[in-house]
Amino acid sequence: MAGEIDKKSSFSNWYNEILKKANIVDVRYPVKGLYTWHPFGFKLRNLVYDELKRLHEGTGHDEVRFPLLIPEANLQKESEHVASFEEEVFWIDRAGKNELDEPLALRPTSETAMYPLFAEWIRSHTDLPFKIYQIVNTFRYETKHTRPLIREREISSFKEAHTAHKGPEEARKQIEESIEIYSSFFDSLGIPYFVSKRPSWDKFPGSEYTIAFDTLMPDGKALQIGTIHNLGTNFSKTFDVQYEDEEGEQQYVHQTCFGISARCVAAVIGVHGDNTGLIFPPKYAPTQVVVIPIIFSDEDEEEILQTCRDVKRELDSAGIRVEIDESEDRPGKKFYKWELKGTPLRIEIGPRDLENEVMTLVRRNSGDKKQKSLENPVENVEDEFKKIDREIAKKAQDNFNENVREIETTNEGVKSLSDGGAVIADWCGKKTCGKELEEELSADILGSVVDSEATDSCIKCGEAGENKILIAKTY
Amino acid sequence: MAGEIDKKSSFSNWYNEILKKANIVDVRYPVKGLYTWHPFGFKLRNLVYDELKRLHEGTGHDEVRFPLLIPEANLQKESEHVASFEEEVFWIDRAGKNELDEPLALRPTSETAMYPLFAEWIRSHTDLPFKIYQIVNTFRYETKHTRPLIREREISSFKEAHTAHKGPEEARKQIEESIEIYSSFFDSLGIPYFVSKRPSWDKFPGSEYTIAFDTLMPDGKALQIGTIHNLGTNFSKTFDVQYEDEEGEQQYVHQTCFGISARCVAAVIGVHGDNTGLIFPPKYAPTQVVVIPIIFSDEDEEEILQTCRDVKRELDSAGIRVEIDESEDRPGKKFYKWELKGTPLRIEIGPRDLENEVMTLVRRNSGDKKQKSLENPVENVEDEFKKIDREIAKKAQDNFNENVREIETTNEGVKSLSDGGAVIADWCGKKTCGKELEEELSADILGSVVDSEATDSCIKCGEAGENKILIAKTY
C-alpha cells in the first residue's frame, strides 16, 4: 500500500488503511461503532457468508428470520442472560409521538426472541432435532474502543444458529457437529484457530459451557471468531420449550446455539494480507483473476487484446470471476491496483507471450511467476488456485504455530506474551488460580484445550493439573 | 386447504390461513406488526429476492450495506421528507444505563443515512452514474391495521436502490431502466401490474415525482408493489452531493431511488394461489417437483421406488429442486400436502406406469395430467415448467384485465368499484377534482397511466382532460 505501513509492527494502522484503500468498509458514518459496507467489501462479505450458509444448509439447518425488537419482559426472563446484557442493550421507548406500552430492546442476540416461538413449533419428539439459523444485524452498546468488523455497535452480519434436541447426548453431538462446521469454514478460509472451552466465568450467560474458536491477529492478540454454546435446559425451562417423548411424557428440550460475526472477514483480511494489500484464498476473492494486456506498440495491440479477451471468455464460461483491465494506466499501476484488492492471480499477455503461445501467470500471495500454454487457461488457472490455497493456509498456520508456546512458569509466560501470541500452561481448574494467572500475565485465559489433559501440576498452585489452558492478550 | 376458505370471497381469511398452513410466516410474535419467517417462507423469499438481486446486478447496481440507525439531525435535514415520517419513526434515546447524546431513528428508508456518504464517494463526473442497492430491515410505526408481508412495522426485506447522475436526462433514463427492472421482475413472477405516476399529493416526500407499480389482489383492492422516485436535486442540495463536471465546475447530482418490499411475496401468494393452497411459477417454488411412488403391493415396491429415485437423481443433477415423498402416508394425503405448498409438478410412478415405461405428470396449477416417457425426465419436466409459467401468467393477466374498466361518470365508478378492481377515467389534472373524485368513489387515485392522454373531458369538472387516471380501493 501507498504509505508503507508495516502490517506486523503497526497492525492497527495497517488494518484501518486497508479497509479504506481497498474499499471494504467506510468508517465515516456519524454514529460510533456503525460502519458502511462498500460494494467491494460487501462482495467479499457475501462470498464468505455464502460458504457459511452452505455449511449450515448441508447439515440440515434451515434459514429463518426473526424480528429485531424484543419486548423487555422477554429479554428479562432468563436472569443470568439479561444481567450480562444489561449494560449493552439499545432501548426503544417511543415511536412517532407515542410512548410505547413496553420498552423494546434491539436484539443483542436472539435466544429470548426465538425460544417463546420454539415452544409453539416443537411439539413432539418427531420435531427433533430442530435446527435453524439466521444472518441478521444485532446491536450491542459496546463501551470498549469500537473497530470495524471487530467490535461494532451494529453487528451488521451476525450468523446465529439455534438447535433443540431430545437429550444431553444429542445436544453434545450437535456441539461436535457445530465444531466441525466452524472448522471446515475456517479451514476453507485458511484461518488457523484454537478450539477451547471457555472458563466458567467467561461462558455465554445462561449456557452450561461455551466452546470458542480464536485466531491470532498480526499484532499477536487473540481474536474470538466463533462461539458454540451448550444451553442444556436452562432456556427451555424458562421459555417452556417441551416435547412429547416416545412414551407420551413431556420433556424439556436440550438446546445449543452458535454464532459467528463479521470478525471472520476481519480475520481473512488481517491474517492473510501483506504490506502491499489484501490476499485472499481464490474461493473468496471478489475478482479471482485479472487479465492485463502488455502492449508496447500499436501493431501488437489488436492481437494481444483479442487474446486477452479470448482467455477471459474461457475463464468466464468456467464460472471463474475474471476481469480484464483495458484501462489507459501503465501496467505497473494496474499491477498495484489489483494487488491491493487481493486478486489471487494475474495473467499478463504481451508480445513475447504471444510469440511463444503462452500467458504469464503471477500469484498474488508469493509473486511467483510462470509461463503456461494458452491452450488450457481454465485448467492452468485452477491448478494455480489450488497451489495458492495451500500456500496461503500453510503460511498462516506456520506463523500461528510459531506464536504458541508451552510455559512452565508465570515468568516465562510474561516474557513470551510480550512477543505476542498465546501460551499453554497446566492448570488445576480452580477459578482463583485462573484469575491470578490472568492478572499476573496481563492476559486472558481463552479456555482449556478441548480434550487436553495436564502433563504437569498447576502452574499457579502446584497442585495436580486438570488440563491445559490457552492464555493470550485478546481483542 | 382444510377448512374450505374461499379465496375470492374471504381473501383476508384465506391469506392468513395459507401463511399459517404452508409455513410462510408466523404471526405469533408478541410485538404488533413484527413477524417471523418460517424456513419454507424464507426459502420462497430468498428465491424471489435472488431474482431481484440478479436484475440489479445485471444493470450495474452494486450491493452495499448501510447502518440501521440514523442520527436525528440527519433525518431532519430534508424538511418535506422528515415531516412525512414524523409519525412513523421508532426512536432510541438510551442504551445500557446511558441516555444517548442524540436520539437515533430506526431507518424508515435510507436517503438520510446514505446521502451524506454519497457526498464523500462521488467526486467527479467519472464517478457517475453511481448505482447501489441494499436489502435490509426498515421500520415504520404503522397505525393502520398491520398484516404480514403487506403492512409491517419491521419491514423485514426492503430492497432499496439509490442512484446519482450528471443531469435530469440521465436521471430520466434511470427511471426508465428502473421501470424495466421492475417490469422484468413482476413478469417473471407472473404478477400483472399497473405502472402509473402518483398524483402530486401522494409522491414520495422530497421527490419530484413517483412512478408506482400496483397489482390487484383477489379482494379487488390494489396493492402497491414497487415505487420509483425521481429526486431531482432536492436531496443532493440538502446533503451537498456534488461532482466536478468535464469543465471543472461543481454540479449537484440528480438522484433517483426505488424500492420493493416483501409485498412482492404477498402478491405471488395472493394472485396465484387457489382454494387448495399455494401456486408458484416453477422458478420460485422452493420445491419444484415432487416424485410420489404409487405402491399397491409389496412385489412392485422395490422397482417403483428405484425408478422414482432414478428420476429424482436425473432431475437433481439438472439443478431442479426435487423431492421424493417416501413417507408412509396414503397417496391422497401426499398429494394434498404438496399441493398446499405449491409444488408446480407432481410425478407419480405406479405399476401401470412402469409397465408402459412412463411417468404420470400432474400440474399443480391446472390439475392437468399426462403420461410421458421415462426416458427424458429433465426435458419433459422443463417443458411442463414452461407451460405452467405461461398458464399461470395468462390466468393472472386475464383476471386482472377483467377487473379494469373505463368509466365515464362517477356513478359508473361507484358501481364498478363495488365489484372491486380498478377504473380508468379522464382527468383534468387538478388536485381539487382528484380529491373530490377520491371522496365520491371512496377510493384512491393510483396515478395517471404513464404516457396516457385523455380522450375525453375531465370526469369531474368537464374541462379539457389531461390524461387517464387509475382509481381503486387500496391496501
Automatic annotation (TrEMBL), chains A, B:
Cellular component terms, GO, for this chain's entry? Answer: aminoacyl-tRNA synthetase multienzyme complex; cytoplasm
Supply the alphabetized keyword list: Aminoacyl-tRNA synthetase, ATP-binding, Cytoplasm, Ligase, Nucleotide-binding, Protein biosynthesis
UniProt domain Aminoacyl-transfer RNA synthetases class-II family profile: residue ranges: 33-281
CDD domains (alphabetical):
ProRS_anticodon_zinc, ProRS_core_arch_euk
- Gene Ontology MF term list: ATP binding; proline-tRNA ligase activity
Q: Which reaction does it catalyse?
A: tRNA(Pro) + L-proline + ATP = L-prolyl-tRNA(Pro) + AMP + diphosphate
Tell me the compartments it is located in.
Cytoplasm
Query: A Pfam family name for this chain?
Result: HGTP_anticodon
What EC number(s) would the UniProt record show? 6.1.1.15
SMART domains given in the database record:
ProRS-C_1
GO BP of this protein: prolyl-tRNA aminoacylation
Q: Which InterPro entries match?
A: aa-tRNA-synt_IIb, aa-tRNA-synth_II, aa-tRNA-synth_II/BPL/LPL, Anticodon-bd, Anticodon-bd_dom_sf, Pro-tRNA-ligase_IIa, Pro-tRNA-ligase_IIa_arc-type, Pro-tRNA_ligase_II_C
The record, for Gene3D superfamilies, names: Anticodon-binding domain (3.40.50.800), Bira Bifunctional Protein, Domain 2 (3.30.930.10), C-terminal domain of ProRS (3.30.110.30)
Main localization of the protein?
Answer: cytoplasm
What's the stated role of this polypeptide? Catalyzes the attachment of proline to tRNA(Pro) in a two-step reaction: proline is first activated by ATP to form Pro-AMP and then transferred to the acceptor end of tRNA(Pro).
Q: How does it assemble?
A: Homodimer.
Q: Which family does it belong to?
A: Belongs to the class-II aminoacyl-tRNA synthetase family. ProS type 3 subfamily.
Please give the HAMAP family that the UniProt record associates with this protein: Pro_tRNA_synth_type3
In the record's own words, the domains note is: Consists of three domains: the N-terminal catalytic domain, the anticodon-binding domain and the C-terminal extension.
Identify this protein by name.
Proline--tRNA ligase
**Which lineage?**
Archaea, Methanobacteriati, Methanobacteriota, Methanonatronarchaeia, Methanonatronarchaeales
